[in-house]
Design goal:
The protein is mainly α. The protein has eight helices and no strands. Helix 2 (55-76) packs across helix 4 and helix 2 packs across helix 7. It is rod-shaped and about 105 Å long. The protein starts with a helix and ends with a helix. It comes from Allosphingosinicella ginsenosidimutans.
Length: 218
Protein backbone atom coordinates (compact mmCIF):
# COMPACT_ATOMS: atom_id res chain seq x y z
CA UNK A 1 0.00 0.00 0.00
CA UNK A 2 1.55 3.29 -1.08
CA UNK A 3 1.66 6.32 1.13
CA UNK A 4 -0.60 8.20 -1.25
CA UNK A 5 -3.12 5.35 -1.19
CA UNK A 6 -3.20 5.19 2.60
CA UNK A 7 -3.62 8.93 2.99
CA UNK A 8 -6.31 8.94 0.31
CA UNK A 9 -8.19 6.22 2.15
CA UNK A 10 -7.78 8.06 5.43
CA UNK A 11 -9.26 11.22 4.00
CA UNK A 12 -12.37 9.29 2.89
CA UNK A 13 -12.40 11.29 -0.30
CA UNK A 14 -13.74 14.15 1.79
CA UNK A 15 -10.64 16.23 2.32
CA UNK A 16 -12.29 19.15 0.60
CA UNK A 17 -15.11 19.26 3.11
CA UNK A 18 -14.75 22.20 5.47
CA UNK A 19 -14.61 20.88 9.05
CA UNK A 20 -17.00 22.52 11.47
CA UNK A 21 -16.57 23.01 15.17
CA UNK A 22 -16.35 19.66 16.99
CA UNK A 23 -19.50 18.80 18.86
CA UNK A 24 -19.99 16.46 21.76
CA UNK A 25 -22.75 13.88 21.57
CA UNK A 26 -24.39 11.55 24.03
CA UNK A 27 -25.60 8.16 22.80
CA UNK A 28 -26.34 6.69 26.25
CA UNK A 29 -28.54 7.73 29.14
CA UNK A 30 -25.70 6.65 31.44
CA UNK A 31 -22.11 6.68 30.21
CA UNK A 32 -20.55 3.21 29.83
CA UNK A 33 -17.78 2.48 32.32
CA UNK A 34 -14.97 2.10 29.81
CA UNK A 35 -11.48 1.26 31.11
CA UNK A 36 -9.11 4.17 30.62
CA UNK A 37 -5.66 5.30 31.61
CA UNK A 38 -2.19 5.64 30.11
CA UNK A 39 -0.86 2.89 27.89
CA UNK A 40 2.72 1.96 27.05
CA UNK A 41 3.80 0.65 23.64
CA UNK A 42 4.43 -2.85 25.04
CA UNK A 43 0.84 -3.22 26.25
CA UNK A 44 -0.90 -6.08 24.34
CA UNK A 45 -3.97 -3.87 23.92
CA UNK A 46 -2.08 -1.51 21.63
CA UNK A 47 -2.65 -3.81 18.69
CA UNK A 48 -0.66 -6.14 16.47
CA UNK A 49 2.82 -6.65 17.99
CA UNK A 50 5.89 -5.20 16.30
CA UNK A 51 8.69 -7.60 17.30
CA UNK A 52 12.08 -5.96 17.63
CA UNK A 53 10.69 -2.45 17.24
CA UNK A 54 12.77 0.47 18.46
CA UNK A 55 11.13 2.91 20.90
CA UNK A 56 10.41 5.29 18.01
CA UNK A 57 8.85 2.49 15.95
CA UNK A 58 6.76 1.30 18.90
CA UNK A 59 5.49 4.83 19.44
CA UNK A 60 4.66 5.09 15.75
CA UNK A 61 2.64 1.90 16.16
CA UNK A 62 0.56 3.49 18.90
CA UNK A 63 -0.02 6.58 16.78
CA UNK A 64 -1.03 4.45 13.81
CA UNK A 65 -3.44 2.39 15.90
CA UNK A 66 -5.21 5.46 17.26
CA UNK A 67 -5.41 7.04 13.82
CA UNK A 68 -6.76 3.80 12.37
CA UNK A 69 -9.42 3.58 15.07
CA UNK A 70 -10.56 7.14 14.38
CA UNK A 71 -10.58 6.35 10.65
CA UNK A 72 -12.85 3.34 11.22
CA UNK A 73 -15.11 5.50 13.40
CA UNK A 74 -15.40 8.06 10.60
CA UNK A 75 -16.67 5.26 8.37
CA UNK A 76 -18.93 3.48 10.86
CA UNK A 77 -20.37 6.34 12.89
CA UNK A 78 -22.01 8.48 10.23
CA UNK A 79 -25.43 7.32 11.46
CA UNK A 80 -25.36 10.17 13.99
CA UNK A 81 -24.73 13.63 12.54
CA UNK A 82 -24.17 14.93 16.06
CA UNK A 83 -20.93 12.94 16.32
CA UNK A 84 -19.48 14.84 13.33
CA UNK A 85 -17.36 11.74 12.74
CA UNK A 86 -16.14 12.65 9.25
CA UNK A 87 -15.65 16.37 9.81
CA UNK A 88 -13.73 15.91 13.03
CA UNK A 89 -11.59 13.10 11.62
CA UNK A 90 -10.62 15.18 8.59
CA UNK A 91 -9.79 18.06 10.92
CA UNK A 92 -7.59 15.74 13.00
CA UNK A 93 -5.73 14.65 9.85
CA UNK A 94 -5.14 18.25 8.88
CA UNK A 95 -4.02 19.39 12.32
CA UNK A 96 -1.67 16.46 12.97
CA UNK A 97 -0.60 15.64 9.41
CA UNK A 98 3.12 16.09 10.13
CA UNK A 99 3.21 13.66 13.04
CA UNK A 100 0.98 11.15 11.24
CA UNK A 101 3.20 11.22 8.16
CA UNK A 102 6.29 10.67 10.30
CA UNK A 103 4.59 7.71 11.99
CA UNK A 104 3.81 6.26 8.56
CA UNK A 105 7.41 6.66 7.42
CA UNK A 106 8.72 5.14 10.65
CA UNK A 107 6.50 2.07 10.31
CA UNK A 108 7.37 1.78 6.64
CA UNK A 109 11.02 1.72 7.67
CA UNK A 110 10.31 -0.90 10.36
CA UNK A 111 8.75 -3.33 7.90
CA UNK A 112 11.46 -2.70 5.33
CA UNK A 113 14.08 -3.39 8.00
CA UNK A 114 12.44 -6.54 9.37
CA UNK A 115 10.92 -8.03 6.20
CA UNK A 116 13.15 -6.79 3.39
CA UNK A 117 11.49 -7.01 -0.01
CA UNK A 118 8.29 -8.23 1.66
CA UNK A 119 8.14 -5.06 3.76
CA UNK A 120 5.49 -3.19 1.74
CA UNK A 121 3.18 -6.21 1.68
CA UNK A 122 3.68 -6.81 5.41
CA UNK A 123 2.89 -3.16 6.12
CA UNK A 124 -0.22 -3.44 3.95
CA UNK A 125 -1.34 -6.54 5.89
CA UNK A 126 -0.58 -4.82 9.19
CA UNK A 127 -2.67 -1.79 8.26
CA UNK A 128 -5.60 -3.93 7.06
CA UNK A 129 -5.61 -6.06 10.21
CA UNK A 130 -5.35 -2.94 12.35
CA UNK A 131 -8.41 -1.45 10.67
CA UNK A 132 -10.33 -4.71 11.04
CA UNK A 133 -9.46 -4.80 14.73
CA UNK A 134 -11.55 -1.68 15.29
CA UNK A 135 -14.55 -2.80 13.27
CA UNK A 136 -17.51 -3.58 15.52
CA UNK A 137 -21.27 -4.04 15.35
CA UNK A 138 -22.39 -5.09 18.83
CA UNK A 139 -20.32 -2.35 20.47
CA UNK A 140 -20.90 0.30 17.81
CA UNK A 141 -22.58 2.89 20.03
CA UNK A 142 -19.92 2.80 22.73
CA UNK A 143 -17.12 2.81 20.18
CA UNK A 144 -18.61 5.71 18.24
CA UNK A 145 -19.15 7.81 21.35
CA UNK A 146 -15.61 7.17 22.62
CA UNK A 147 -14.07 7.86 19.21
CA UNK A 148 -16.02 11.12 18.87
CA UNK A 149 -14.75 12.35 22.21
CA UNK A 150 -11.17 11.34 21.45
CA UNK A 151 -11.29 13.08 18.07
CA UNK A 152 -12.57 16.21 19.78
CA UNK A 153 -9.73 15.93 22.30
CA UNK A 154 -7.25 15.57 19.43
CA UNK A 155 -8.37 18.92 18.06
CA UNK A 156 -7.41 20.58 21.34
CA UNK A 157 -3.84 19.21 21.14
CA UNK A 158 -1.06 21.15 19.53
CA UNK A 159 0.87 19.82 16.57
CA UNK A 160 3.34 17.16 17.65
CA UNK A 161 1.19 15.99 20.58
CA UNK A 162 -0.77 13.21 18.88
CA UNK A 163 1.55 10.61 20.40
CA UNK A 164 0.62 11.93 23.85
CA UNK A 165 -3.05 11.56 22.98
CA UNK A 166 -2.40 7.97 21.88
CA UNK A 167 -0.66 7.21 25.16
CA UNK A 168 -3.52 8.70 27.18
CA UNK A 169 -6.59 7.49 25.29
CA UNK A 170 -5.83 4.41 23.17
CA UNK A 171 -6.81 2.15 26.08
CA UNK A 172 -10.21 3.86 26.19
CA UNK A 173 -10.76 3.39 22.47
CA UNK A 174 -9.84 -0.29 22.70
CA UNK A 175 -12.04 -0.71 25.77
CA UNK A 176 -15.02 0.76 23.95
CA UNK A 177 -15.03 -2.30 21.66
CA UNK A 178 -16.64 -4.28 24.49
CA UNK A 179 -20.46 -4.08 24.21
CA UNK A 180 -22.13 -1.87 26.81
CA UNK A 181 -25.83 -1.44 27.42
CA UNK A 182 -27.74 1.31 29.13
CA UNK A 183 -28.92 0.58 32.66
CA UNK A 184 -32.30 1.91 33.62
CA UNK A 185 -33.67 2.26 37.14
CA UNK A 186 -37.39 2.76 37.31
CA UNK A 187 -39.47 2.80 40.48
CA UNK A 188 -42.06 0.08 40.19
CA UNK A 189 -45.11 0.94 42.30
CA UNK A 190 -48.10 -1.41 42.20
CA UNK A 191 -51.15 0.32 40.86
CA UNK A 192 -54.63 -0.86 41.80
CA UNK A 193 -57.11 -0.10 39.09
CA UNK A 194 -60.67 0.70 40.12
CA UNK A 195 -63.23 -1.60 38.52
CA UNK A 196 -65.15 -0.06 35.68
CA UNK A 197 -68.82 0.44 36.54
CA UNK A 198 -70.98 -0.17 33.49
CA UNK A 199 -74.69 0.49 33.25
CA UNK A 200 -76.78 -2.66 32.77
CA UNK A 201 -77.72 -3.34 29.17
CA UNK A 202 -81.08 -2.14 27.88
CA UNK A 203 -82.96 -5.29 26.98
CA UNK A 204 -86.40 -3.71 26.66
CA UNK A 205 -86.40 -3.71 22.88
CA UNK A 206 -85.46 -7.36 22.57
CA UNK A 207 -87.86 -10.27 22.40
CA UNK A 208 -87.85 -13.90 23.31
CA UNK A 209 -84.53 -15.71 23.56
CA UNK A 210 -82.45 -12.62 22.80
CA UNK A 211 -84.11 -10.75 25.65
CA UNK A 212 -83.54 -13.59 28.12
CA UNK A 213 -79.84 -13.84 27.15
CA UNK A 214 -79.50 -10.07 27.45
CA UNK A 215 -81.00 -10.11 30.92
CA UNK A 216 -78.62 -12.90 31.96
CA UNK A 217 -75.71 -10.78 30.76
CA UNK A 218 -74.95 -13.11 27.88
Amino acid sequence: MTKARIIATAMLALAAAAPGAPASAQLFLYDPQIPSGPMTPDDPLVGIPLPGATPAEAQAGMIWNLRSGLNVAALQCQFSPYLRAVDNYNAVLGQHSGELNRAYQTLEGYFRRTAGAQGPRRFDDYSTRTYNGFSTLNAQLGFCQAAARIAKDALTRRQGEFHTLATERLRELRGSLTPFYDSYAFMRMPVRLAPIQLDPPDCSRLRGRERRECQRGG
